Amino acid sequence: MVPRQRALIGAALSRPCTLVVCRGCCCGDARKHPGHDHAWQLDRLVAAAAGSQGAFQVRTTDCLGPCDQANVVVVQPSTAGRRAGGRATWVGFAMGDDCTEEIIGWAAAGGPGLAPPPVTLELQFIKPPRDARVRSRR
Q1: Cβ pair 23, 61 in contact under 8 A
Q2: For 77, which of 2, 21, 88, 133 is 20 to 30 Å away at the CA?
Q3: What pairing do the DSSP bridges indicate for beta strands 56-61 and 17-22?
Q4: Cα gap 81→121, rounded to integer Å
Q5: Is 45 buried (19+), middle (13-18) or exposed (0-12) by CB count in 10 A?
Q6: How many whole angstroms separate alpha carbon 88 and alpha carbon 67?
Q7: How far apart are the C-alpha atoms of 73 and 60, rounded to whole Å?
Q8: What rounded mean pLDDT belongs to the chain?
Q9: Is the full-model pTM beyond 0.70?
């Protein structure tokens, strides 16, 4: 039996690694995390993506769900990363310069499926909320 292959069309042919940055009810909120420069973090991620020559992109979204683990960033694999077995990786408590730089470095190196994550970043991996896991299987 020959395995069935899916044809990729449009943007899916060469989708880069994508950082989905939560900026909903708790993530990015100075009232919840005073003393952390949320605007700087987002600006730093966007600037790094712009300078990465297409290696990764950044987008924001409303609440992703695990508010008790804010700030949350989801690192989605590129098309090549997904083909290599990479899956979306949820990073919780994603604050501070070191964490931000580790996320940038991992995404620039290819992200899930193409590059191993920094060991210290692995300590911040979280499980996605149940609703997100169910949606991803559809």
Answers
A1: yes
A2: 2
A3: parallel
A4: 18
A5: buried
A6: 18
A7: 9
A8: 86
A9: yes
Region of residue 96 (left: phi > 0; alpha: psi -120 to 50; beta: else):
left
Amino acid at site 73:
V
Instruction: Single out the residue of 61, 91, 77 nearest to residue 16, CA to CA.
Output: 77
Tens digit of each residue's pLDDT (9 = 90 or more) over 86-119: 999 999 999 989 999 999 999 999 999 999 999 9
| Cα–Cα distance, 137 to 70 (Å, whole number) | 24
First to last CA, the chain: 25
Cis amide bond preceding 71, omega within 30: yes
- Per-residue pLDDT, averaged over 9-32, amounts to 81
Q: CA 6, CA 45: separation in Å to the nearest integer? A: 32
pLDDT at 5 over 60: no
How does pLDDT run across 36-64, given as a tens digit for each residue?
888 899 999 999 999 999 899 999 998 88
Residue type, 122: E
